[in-house]
Amino acid sequence: MEILAGRVLLRPVDPDVTTVFYRDVLGLAVYREFPGGTVFFLGGGFLEVSGRGEGPGTGDGVRLWMQVRDLAGARKELAERGARIVREPRREPWGLDEMWVEDPDGVRIGFIEIPPEHPLRKDIRTIP
Fold it and tell me: What is the SS3 assignment for 34?
């Protein structure tokens, strides 16, 4: 099986409110719009907001992970735009700097900065 593309699908309680959040608060660029939905660029993937969910808390297992270059700058920008920050930036035991916000339906969104010394920053390819 060959996977050609993928995306995260959200089924929010209020699609209009959620679309405004991802477009205006998080500042994601729109990839395309269609009747009943909006697809956003999400780094190397896409985030689609379409349809309706059954109610807050039903998507508790969904988490979004977004890598940023400057976590402190992202925190400032998101706070200015009214994002609900549920956990302030901090260094995790695994070495990543993380901050978490919630969208209008309570979906948790992690903003992650990879410190220069972290192993994810090293090129582990070797040529014999």
Answer: strand
Assess whether pLDDT exceeds 70 at residue 7.
yes
Q: Domain residues for 87?
A: 8-53+60-121
E strands present in the chain: 8-10, 30-34, 37-42, 45-50, 63-67, 84-91, 97-102, 108-113
Count of domains for the chain: 1
- What value, to the nearest 5°, has the Cα angle with vertex 63 and ends 1 and 21? 115
Instruction: Look at residue 128 and tell me if it is in a domain.
Output: no
pLDDT band at 70 (very low <50, low <70, confident <90, very high): very high
pLDDT greater than 90 at residue 66: no
